[in-house]
Amino acid sequence: MPIDPEQLDERAAVVDIITKPDPTPLCAAARKRGCHTQGGAAMHEGQAVYAARFLGLAYWPAGRPKVALPGPSPSNVAFS
User: Is 13 within 8 Å of 38 (Cβ atoms)?
Assistant: First the structure.
């Protein structure tokens, strides 16, 4: 692991762009130290939503709450 989790302050936020495993070893170690963590899945899903929107497709990750996206919305895309 490129970061020694023992050096993390419990007030730190640790973000890992790796999506699997979830949690990653880094995030798991950071959680044990009391840090707030964010894995890569949320970033990956967010990028997929914007990529689908750009292509005129309706996509929303299963189990995620629907939110309004900033910017113009293509008229032919319906999120249901």
Answer: yes
